[in-house]
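Standup notes, structure subgroup. Blocker cleared on the zinc ion input:
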Amino acid sequence: MKAIRLKQMNSEPQIALADLPEPRLRSPQEAVVRVLCIGLDGTDREILTEHYGQPPEGENELTNGHESLGVVVEAGPQSAVSAGDLVTALVRRPCLEPGCVNCRNGRADYCESGKYTERGIKGEHGYLAEYYVEEDRYLVKVPVESLSYGVLAEPQSIVEKVWEQVQHVQQRLIWEPKTAVILGAGPLGLLAAATCRCLGLEVHVWSKGGSDSLPAERIREIGGVYRSADAPPGEAEPRLTDYVRSLRRPPDLLFECTGFSPLAFEAMDVLGPNGVLALLGVTPGKRTAEIPSDALNRQIVMQNKCVLGSVNASRKNFETGLYRLRQMEEKFPGWLGKLMTDRIRIEQVPQLDFSQIGIKAVVDVVPRDQWKALLHPAAEAEYSFSV
Ligand code: BGC
Ligand code: ZN
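Run returned:
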């Protein structure tokens, strides 16, 4: 079968199309999944440009891909899925440390030892191949109506994990959030913005990229406000602080999705009283910055601010994510489809120039007009939906 593999791990990372044997069931709980499509994100780019990928122990190649949508083609006798089911898969697998209480309780997204693995990223092959095998406990069923945008379940699960935590944290007070500010208009920032719109919040997005860019258009389409962080010709770079201070109300919720670390500290400053700042982005750099530590410390204490970091997601977050994507599709029909600007075939992945991607690249491992035929025979009759 065709697969995309990361090679030459010790020198320059490179990806290439490979021919691998088709995987087989190894236990009765497993299923063989035929991959329909795989989404690519910033992590996939970093795997290539920043040596972020790590092959399984004892191997020197890694199959890429962690945002997946596929159809079960063979299910083990004890598996909770059956042939024809549309599925996506969790990314992280637990570490083996007996003392890692979260991994031992099904929450590898809160792994304490750092020895977790992640399919397609760290120590475990990913899904960017024609088939993969996985245990049912790591598979999440996707409703067939969500066929056209189900591949976004993984990035949406990242947003849902944040919202889940925010709800827990904000039990501490009476909270009536009104304004959200999102930093960064990549796929994650856009999904965070749409989520906040679904939650009824006023949404402001601050990002590199002009006001006429594709992400800016997407933000306006959902009723958000886009503000470019680019310097107008001949002028100084605009500052986040000035922008946020010009809003009617300081943000109750702030999502940092750029990974540009100095912005994270500026965000702590402009976050409103009792607000939550969620840090979701990272970059591999070694940047250092001088910060007004006394003022920041004072503000965080005196205004009950909360800063939380969040990575990966649980099964529940995937399920809520699928629910939310459906809500977005109802509220903004066709909008999710417009996030997937670059659709390519698996053979084209090695030539992909990440810097040229409009918003999000999706690899159609099976051509889209063949997807429906692979689902349960009843699916097409039961629902009317288009890909
Ligand atoms: C993935 C997460 C993963 C993180 C860190 C992200 O791109 O969506 O599932 O935990 O990278 O590797
Ligand atoms: Zn662990």
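Discussed briefly. The mean pLDDT is 95.
Next: hand off to the docking folks.
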